[in-house]
Amino acid sequence: MTRLPEDLLPALHDALGEAGLITDAERMQSYLSDWRNAYRGQAAAVLRPGTTEEVAAAVRLCAQAGVALVPQGGNTGLCGGSIPDASGAQMVLSLTRLKRIREVDVANATITVEAGVILQQLQDAAAEVGRLFPLSLGAEGSCTVGGNLATNAGGTAVLRYGNMRDLALGLEVVLPDGRIWDGLRGLRKDNTGYDLKQLFIGSEGTLGIITAAVLKLFPALRSLTTAWVALPSPQAAVTLLGQMRGLCGDRLTGFELMSRKSLEFVLRHVAGASDPFAEGHPWYVLIELSDTQPDAALNDLLEQGLGEAFEQALVLDAVVAGSQAQVEALWALREGISEAQNHEGPSLKHDISVPVSRIPDFIARTDRALQQAFPGVRVVAYGHVGDGNLHYNISKPPGSDDAPFKAQAEAIMRVIYDSTLEDDGSISAEHGLGQSKRAAAQHYKAPLELELMRSIKQALDPAGLMNPGKLL
């Protein structure tokens, strides 16, 4: 372990106070591994500033001492982006004490929040003034705004509202030298040069520390209808998506694709889960329509769209939720897939995106290639088909040992990512690169893209102290 300057910890204690500095090994443990325990590291200390000024002071002191910082929000990521390395020389910078909602501007349809605000708290704050913050994902009860921005989170409503890059108007950022960039402007038009906030969104804390953001609000939704639909193929899903968008426009807020294998895992391992249909079908979509009007005729629209699809043999069966409890039960089938797969042994998770039109070919081609190279592996494919994002996860063959399967992880990944590249896709749609996909990015991203990214990193963080070993 690299020795810290003797005066650094006392200086950090003076700057952050007793609540802002953790050096006790036992108290640090929860900050040193991710929620899946897939990544674990060591740290010289955990810093917990309570204000932007304290973040700036901590960053400045560490920069002067040459100590690297690893920003951390709710620690719900899947790629190890918020976990320090094993050296014990880095410090974790937790933003969870920055949890103020600074301003709600109803007339401007914006809300200004600090990085440690939990996503669900942000949603609730919007609802209190009759507005909607639309980002929704499985970890919304524990993930934070800062982490959502740092990874450009997507979720289930991207189809209508976009991801965090689309939902952010302004940022406040502590730069690697400790200066504070105040870009907290709630403007939808600002054509005065480079859009600096976009550098930091999706940068995984490698260029600076996001401490606050101005985010868009939308009208509250007062009508909702949800359907679980059985389909013969991914191509039927893509065709149905186009028809429902043409019929419903922006009322179509959710369109989630799931394979039969995905549902089987949920039915097997999630308590209370039940199949909406009496018999199994190859593929399913979960469709959600919503409207700001309290009595919008959404069921009529849904029935019209599904009726036309039945006539074209695109739909095999469908059930429309008749109550809020049924809506929650249907969404639980979708949201339970990732956890259910973990009960089947090691899970190799791949978060990819391809153009929506290419999803059927991608699935068919990649399924075939995997079975040829790794007979018996089980593909668990599901995702936000409306924006081309598939969670294309792999489980071991039934009854096989874990170790040989894990040993094939790199080769399996190559098959999937090579197939993704054939469709001009991305190896990370919404989870980021972190440390798990850093090496793969060097192989699959264009050399010029990597050169430009390194140039930006060098310009903003020449000492390389912001989340080193991640993304690049």
UniProtKB/TrEMBL annotation:
Signal peptide: none annotated. It holds the Pfam family FAD-oxidase_C. Residues 39-220 form the FAD-binding PCMH-type domain. InterPro entries: FAD-bd_oxidored_4_C, FAD-bd_PCMH, FAD-bd_PCMH-like_sf, FAD-bd_PCMH_sub1, FAD-bd_PCMH_sub2, FAD-linked_Oxase-like_C, FAD-oxidored/transferase_4, Oxid_FAD_bind_N. The keyword Flavoprotein applies. PANTHER family: BLL6224 PROTEIN, D-2-HYDROXYGLUTARATE DEHYDROGENASE, MITOCHONDRIAL. This is FAD-binding oxidoreductase.
